Amino acid sequence: MSVFWQKVGSLFKRRELDRDLDSELASHIELATDEYIREGMAPDDARRRAVLRLGGIEQSKETQRDARGMAAIESVLQDVRYAVRTLRRDAGFAAFTVLIIGLGVGACATVFSVVNSILVRPLPLKNPNALVWIANRTKTEDNMSGRTLQVGRVLDFKQRNQSFSDVAGYFAFYGTGDVSLTGNGEPERLSAVPVSETFFPLLGVQPMLGRQFRADECKWNGPGAALLTYGLWQRRFASDPHIIGKALRLDQKSVTVVGVMPASFDFGAIFAPGQQIDLFYAFPLSPETDRWGNTLAVVGRLKPGATLRRAQAEADILGNQISDEHPRANDIHPVLSFLPQHVSGQVRPALIILACAVGVVMLIVCANLSNLMLARTAARQKEMAIRAALGAGRKRLARQLLTESLLLTGVGAILGIVLALTATRAIAHLTAFNLPMLSSVRIDVRVLAITVLIATATGLVLGLAPAWQIAVLKLNASLGQRGAAGAENNWVRGTLVASEIAFACVLLVGAGLLVRSFVRVLDVKLGFQPRSAATLRIDPGRGYDTNEKLIAYMNDALHRVRSVTGVEEAGLVDSLPLGKNRTWGAGAKGKTYAPNQYPLAFVRLISDGYVKAMGMTLKQGRDFSEHDTLGAAPVMLINETMARTLWPGENPIGKSVVGPCAKEREVIGVLGDVRHMALEKDAGLEMYLPSRQCSDRGWSLVVRSNLPISTLGPAVEAALRPITPDLPRGGMRPLTELVDRAVSPRRFIVLLLGGFAGFALLLASLGIYGLISYSVNRRTQEIGIRMALGASTMDVQSRIVLKTMGIAGIGLAAGIVASSGLVRSVNGLLYGIGSGDPVTFAVAAFVLMLIAGVAGYLPARRASKIDPMICLRAD
Amino acid sequence: MRMPTEPKLDLLQGTLDVMVLQTLSVMGAQHGYGIARRIEQVSGEEILLNQGTIYASLVRLQQRGWILAEWGTSDNNRRAKYYTITPQGWKQLAEDMAYWRRLSSVMNCVLAMAEGAR
User: Fold this and answer.
1) I need a surface site. Which of A297, A330, A372, A850 has the fewest CB within 10 A?
2) Hey, what long-range contacts does A178-185 have (CB within 8 A, 24 or more apart)?
3) Separation CA A596–CA A579 (nearest Å)
4) For residue A393, which residues of chain B lie inside 8 Å, CB to CB?
5) Given an 8 Å threshold on Cβ–Cβ distance, is B52 in contact with A59?
6) Which residues of B touch A39 (CB under 8 A)?
7) What pTM was estimated for this model as a whole?
């Protein structure tokens, strides 16, 4: 052991030990010389003999060094030192290589971090693989109320099933910013999620401070209790360790803080991507909440040994039983899926595509660098040949080249990790993107391991090709004549460049399709005008406890806002488009429907002015007015799709709809369709009820105005403050934010993939440029002779450009064929175009050929400026 | 270029290490050149030793703690590095000697047997 450490130590004390050895050997020579002189030799001869008997000073040093240190490590260090020296001489090449590898590795590590946190890493819950998302089966996929479950049916299911150890849920129709916090400090709007008693125990999440909800707090009208999220506790309460037991005023009601959730638990990241949740209420599973209809999002934990398939089979039977027993209540038909899959489900295909894309980028990086390395080796053939002639083994030379490339990739990988660290930090703070688990994106051990693996593989690939060339190095050939081996590896390099172009083409086509889809999505007819409009959450305080008072508040608020200068129109809505949706049954009066065919329509409760403030179009009839109020006749607006569905080919005005918030309602107008679900999804049946006839607490005020938010916001707030003293400041948001948020996952993918495609394009063009200028340099003489024999500048240039185009064309052809096969995998992400979109393919081909042309033309122009005399005289 | 040491050298090194230890045990403190000369003389100038290899052996023995080194002055006033054997070195030498004696007697027997069989 101590020998080992001495050997290791000797690696670091090299210089000192060498100096000592030098003087020892010098003394040896002196002693020997003395003796030979005593024997009668001439001093010079004596000294020569002394050195001879020693066996050479350098050789002696070498054997001693080998004995004292670790020969293998020392020679590796020597290789590294040599590589550093060589690369420093070629700093441009080294910097370029490190940069490219850094970008490639950085991209890989970043994408893998995202994939890791969304698809690979287990959810931060106890044994998440036993957690099951329980949705309701519906006919239409878009039916939001249908997918949630009714409290009573969930209780029945929970009681009877044998597969789940527990079933719990949360109230799915909570709204972001629905709760207003007043008292201690500025009033503020918070997002609260009501959860059932066993929701957190079921997930296996323990409060960091305090306790879970108690049974009495989960009763109807029980004592108000709240669990704070770590973020709110930190931000609003300065991490007060004595917060437990304190009372908060939420919506003018006193609520006791019973606990604080740990920082590791992010409800939004798992269940509501892009939303920040501030606190949790207890949600009673009681007859009162049962009456609210389908409101629960439900999660269950499988008993040990239970399988999803058997649980599903059981749920099918139980669902039918329970639904039959309660013919008047909503049906329950549970559809089970594992929670992790449910969470990552939507983004999985996009992430897989991103992962593949980054893999392709890495392939291009490898091809590009192999090419550079090949060019370098060709240029260094003489050096290698000389070193081989001086006795360096081929293995040793090959190892030297591998060391160089590993060194380059090593430094590149470090750069890549630094880049990835920055990128992941940025991604984790992207609150505007509603992707699940995005905030947990970070570089962890797994990502580091993958990165090291990728970098090592890259280094080996880069080093192997030149090393292989060394193995077949013909000494005499290389030493004797210049550049004969160049021709042999030219086709290898050509193939590499062509494959780079093919890969770049695949990425370009993929990115092109997504960009075009993105543009299509942004171009979609929303049915409202998000520009020059802003929204603000308002709600009347507890004092407005009767419908009459509420209506008075509503009138007052609208008048006040409309009188603000610069405000064109203002209106109220219970929930804005592209957010939460609910559907209610709405059948045409006088028609009978089969039980499963009863029409369901999205509901919006709106005030007068909303239609204009949103910039929606009234196609027929009239808008609501202030007079469509409690005592007046029940009226409604419907969209065109609903009009067509309920009364095909008839005039809907004056017809009646049965059900929504009244026995029956008369249709007084028809509005254009609005994309409520998502930009990519067509409008369904939509109906609008006057909020004065069907009231709900908590409204979004929509204001149409050309004023900037910074002046409009304070003005509107000032106008409302006399009747809403608790109105939080700075709550006004532009309406465009809704659209931005809705398209954010798509933009995320488009940005990343577009970035990759651009990078690939850059690399491919560098590759082709490098190849052509290299071959031009090698053929300077030939070109000179051609020109001396009368070839014109044009001839020379066109020959070279044509050659470039030839290589690019082959790559492009391969790329197009590969793309047309591969793009089918992005089909799910496309909107408005097919995966075979000819425009995208044509543009990609054109861009690639154009870039190849430019990359070929630059060296060609240089070649055509060659002075025949100079290059003939050279060498 | 340094090549990896080949395995067959190990025996030779081992032999040299024993010779160095034995020399030091007999002569007391001695410098590298003195050790090399002594080995050559004792062997009746039969092994032509590359004297330089002695230094590899010396550093090996030093690392194992069997000998110590110290700079000093020679009889004819030359600075030289003097080596002395340590107690551990004595122990090792005893073991090595026993081993070499056994080996050489076995080798003798084996070689004699081969002659007899012919």
Assistant:
1) A850
2) A178/A537, A178/A698, A179/A250, A179/A251, A179/A278, A179/A279, A180/A250, A180/A251, A180/A539, A180/A726, A180/A728, A181/A236, A181/A248, A181/A249, A181/A250, A182/A249, A182/A252, A182/A726, A183/A248, A183/A249, A184/A248, A185/A236
3) 26
4) 1, 3
5) yes
6) none
7) 0.69
**Residue with tokens 């429907």, as numbered in its chain:** A593
Nearest to A189 by CA among A99, A276, A96, A100: A276
Question: Cα separation of A703 and A605, whole Å?
Answer: 16
Give B-chain residues touching A74 at CB under 8 angstroms.
Answer: 2
Residue B51 φ/ψ, nearest 5 degrees: -55, -30
Say if CB A834 and CB A521 are below 8 A apart.
no
| Closest listed residue to residue A602, CA positions, set A578, A587, A583 | A583
Backbone angles phi, psi at A174, to 5 degrees: -65, 155
What is the secondary structure of chain B as a DSSP string? Answer: -PPPPPTTHHHHHHHHHHHHHHHHHHH-SEEHHHHHHHHHHHTTT-S---TTHHHHHHHHHHHTTSEEEEEEE-TTS-EEEEEEE-HHHHHHHHHHHHHHHHHHHHHHHHHHHHHHH-
ipTM, two decimals:
0.83
Reported as a single tens digit per residue, the pLDDT across A712-768 is 888 888 888 888 777 777 788 888 888 888 888 788 888 888 888 888 888 888 888
CA A392, CA A783: separation in Å to the nearest integer? 37
Q: What are phi and psi of A630, to 5 degrees?
A: -50, -50
Where do the H-state alpha helices sit in A213-294? 230-237, 267-271, 287-290
Q: Which two tokens stand for residue A150?
A: 């009714």
Tokens of A111: 């994408």
B99 or A289: which leads in pLDDT: B99
SS3 A311: helix
Residue linked to tokens 């060296």: A859
Q: Which residues of A touch B70 (CB under 8 A)?
A: none
Give the C-alpha separation, A428 to A273, whole Å. 12
pLDDT at residue number A479 = 56
What does the block give as tokens for A65?
Answer: 């060094």
Single-letter code of the amino acid located at B118: R
Q: Do A25 and B57 touch (CB under 8 A)?
A: no
Q: From the CA of A28, how many Å to the nearest CA of chain B?
A: 5
Torsion of CA B3, B6, B9, B11, to 10 degrees: 150
Of the candidates B33, B63, B76, the beta carbon closest to that of A68 is on B63
On whether any CB of chain B is under 8 Å from the CB of A13, the answer is no
Distance from CA of B53 to the nearest CA of A (A): 6
Radius of gyration of chain B (CA): 17
- The beta-strand segments (E) located in A329-374 are 334-338
The alpha helices in A637-733, defined as continuous H runs, are: 640-646, 709-720
Task: Provide the β-strand partners of residue A687.
Answer: A603, A638
CB A660 within 8 A of CB A636: yes
Residues A86-121 pLDDT 10s: 878 877 778 888 888 888 888 888 888 888 887 777
Structure tokens at B97: 């000697």
Query: Contact A132/A299 with Cβ under 8 angstroms?
Result: yes
CA distance B41 to B26: 14
Contact A126, A204 (CB under 8 A): yes
CA distance A23 to A25: 5
* A/B interface, count of CB pairs below 8 Å: 89
3-state secondary structure of A564: coil
- B52 chain-A contacts, CB cut-off 8 A: 25, 54-57, 59-60, 63-64
Residue A653 burial by Cβ neighbours in a 10 Å radius (0-12, 13-18, 19+) = middle
Closest CA to A702 of A603, A563, A562: A562
